[in-house]
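pasting for the record
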Amino acid sequence: MIKKVIKYFLYFLFLIFIGILYLSYFGVETKRFNQFIKNEVSKVNEQASIELKDVKILLNLSNFSITLNTHEPNLAFKNKKIKLKNIKTNFSLGSFLKKEFAIKNVSISTKENNLKDIVSLLRVYQNSPELFILNKMIKNGTLVTDINFNFNDKGKINKDYSIKGSVIDANFRLLNKQVIKNINLNFDVKNNQYLIKDTKFEFNQTKLLSREIKITNLNKYFLIKGDLKNPETLFNPESLSFYFKNNFENLGFKNLNFSSDSNFSFRLNNKFKFSDINIKSKINLKKLDYKLNSSKLKSYIPNYGGLFKLNDHKIVLAFNKDQLSFTGKGKFFIDKISDEIDYDILLKDGDYIFKTKIAINNNPLLIKFLNYSKEKNKRSSLKAEGLFKKNKSIIFNKILFEELENKILLEEVSLNKNFKINNLTNLELNVLNGKKKYNKISLKRNKKNYELNGKEFDASNFIEQALENNDNSGVSSIFNDFNSNITVKIDKTYIDKISYINNLSGSVNFTKNKISRLNLESNFSNNKKLTLTINTNKNNEKITTLFSSHPKPLVKRYKFIKGFEEGVLDFQSIKKNNTSKSLLIIDNFKVKEVPVLAKLLSLASLQGIADLLTGEGIRFTDFEMIFSNKDKLMTIDEIYAIGPAISIMMSGYIESEKLVSLRGTLVPARTINRTIASIPLIGDILIGKKVGEGVFGVSFKIKGPPKNLKTTVNPIKTLTPRFITRTLEKIKKNN
């Protein structure tokens, strides 16, 4: 009997052993544990439930546990189903017998599921702020993933979890309502580290790629490192408004086409604030058009039509600790003519520190102030370095322009937002201008004042403006609120294409861009003198005087008075409130080749005198012109000229370059002589004893555009008392 019992016991043990071996290697499928698993899932979260098919059971003797595996189950949460491939879990028999939480780990492989549903499920187990925000951002998309969780005795997930998978065709809405579209990526999440690989997405109509992005959770913040690449893309101006917080097209930019390859790192805290941003990008700018209608640029670049084009620029961009720098080089086009530019720009504390070199070989260049022009296809370069401040002012440490032997150097130049000079430390010119004259001068700052020195200078524009009593003298177009005294010392100064003065010296004082005081003197090559003064009196009247014993080069500006030879010029003017009153006196000169005067003499039947204009000229002993200027209107109160051949008196006005209107009297010298010699019998002379004897000269009118003047004449028999008085004054003066 005992033997049988032992035999059956051994047989039972053998069966148990065989059963254990079978369960260990092959397992069995059953539904008996389904309800237990459901109950365990409900313990984790009451709102979660699981639908199971047959569960395969494998016995693990090493840790006294059972492995449960089921295929194609469904996990339900708040009426949302998660489609799974399989669930695998390790069930502790010891914990079960002790009535403790028995599930030690869970491995889940999913099918394609709604991404939003997956995030909702994850929040069941770990409802972190990151998952909450992520759930709000997700619009749509699918996810395939493998999840591995380990549980502690209380049913909480340990930190050694692992999540791998892929996101397919997802769309995210950012907190600023911008949308990231068509997201496709692979991910690997382990504890506090997130690895994102092979990412493709579209943002603001731009396709972007990333090989790897690594996110590390450091409790107080996330450390994010990765790369980002965009293939060559033609950007829509509207899409760029996001980056520039303005309408990109309104800024003047359009037709932006570029590709980039970037590496980046930054920190992101729980409040989505960025810090420690580091970016390095290689940018291939294929094309960028910049539209800017600027009259200032057109004045310097004759062929500028309002559009800059950048082509084939290689740019390296770096951002580190609130500093943005980018260096690059490439071509720029103005009216289909290309040149090259190099640049190095650093953005720091809102200011741009720049250094650039522009090769201007093919485009023309014009500097009107210097009467300088660089023609097409002549090699030149422009170098500049300085600072563009956030208040839109510009400080140039150095500006250097070079073209063959021509050189323009400016140092320590500050400009306001309207590109006018606030300060200038040094200016050096060595330029051959359009009149084939050299400007070899330097302007150096000495404390608050300046010193202008040089060997040669073309001052024709300056002299022209001074003669017109122009307060600005070209300064207002260049300087902002210029208040300084300039001492002048120049060996040779041209006042027109031919004439020049030697040893120009003196000083010019500016107050708020206007000449308040000027005192210059020099001499011509024949030792004849030239002096120019401007002073402001207590009544704020500006008094200008000009004296020259060689007036010919100065009188050329008066288009109706041409052909001056010899003589002495004396000019005086008083100006206040934009209105000037002036007196011009010229003594002992000749004029010739004056078309208006020739026509007038011809109409007056004074052909003999007219012939003098084409020969030796008509001599005048005295010339006086009393006139006033306001805006673009010159009002001539009186022009009086007397000479051996004729005398003229006239008045009228000249409206800029639009209209000339003059009227007056012309009398031959023989008539004047007869009149003056017979003063006691003036009545007889004025009336005349014989027919025709009283015809003294002609009255005339000259009117029309400067290039199309019309002249009419009428004979006169009497001279005005004013004419006779002025003549007597001149005769008495000359005697």
